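Proteins fold reproducibly. Look at a sample protein:
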Amino acid sequence: MKDLEKELDELFRAWREAVPGPDASAQFMPGMWEKIEARRTLVFRVRHLARAFLGATAVLCTLMAGVFLLEANRPGPVPTESYLDSLAYAHANESMLDAMHVEAVEGRR
């Protein structure tokens, strides 16, 4: 049993020598933050910027969709003519264009 305690004491002694004690000075936390900031790389900054742009894009898309939905639900002008009136008007325009084309062709001869 004494041998185990002696080995354990030697193990703890070796551990204390290998691992320095914690720094209890006033510069401990600023030093810790300097180490943390030093580990932040360009990838971390780009990732942070990409998340910000993604959030801004989501807000912009939501606003655009809201404007689109408001405009889509706005009532439009009510047609005053019937479908048959529209067909008759279109047929009259086609007939007039055909007549103008015939006159132009005959005038060239």
The two ends are 129 Å apart (CA to CA). The longest helix spans residues 42-72. The chain has four helices and no strands.
